[in-house]
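Methods — Computational structure assignment.
A single polypeptide chain was analysed. Its primary sequence is given first, followed by the predicted tertiary structure written as structure tokens.
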Amino acid sequence: MTPAGALCLWLGCLLLWGAAPTPVCDPSTCSPCSEPTPGGCCPPCTPPCACPPYLADDCEIQGFTDNRVPAGLSFYIDFARKLCTCQPSGDITCTPHCPPVPPTCQAVGSPVADGCPRCVCYDKEEVAVPAGTVVSQGAQLCTCPPEGGRLQCGDGGEV
């Protein structure tokens, strides 16, 4: 074969190779947690987070029996006052789940089952009454003001 013929053959092959259809990557066809594919179309699995020993009971109670939390999933600790999430980095981070208590609160307590502190009033029996609610104390209706503190009762008196 002459050099000119070889060059033509090589250029023809090059043109045909360039015209060949290239596979299209469609990430929607990847399984939720796939092994990496040649060419990097499907993302690799993010490894689960290992529950540290101090959170092992919380992890197990909430269904992570092998003490491994899949990336992106969360669980509660401290009577649902904190939400812990497995980060893609492999670390578990916990953040407060309760709203902040306003600085104007005169009394703070946890009057509801979520365990979050909030503004309250305490009645005669030292039961926490959520701020902004109305309760009956005997024959009187009493209101706990928004900042908590003392119950304000119908006759203007405090409890």
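Note: The helical segments are 3-19, 56-61.
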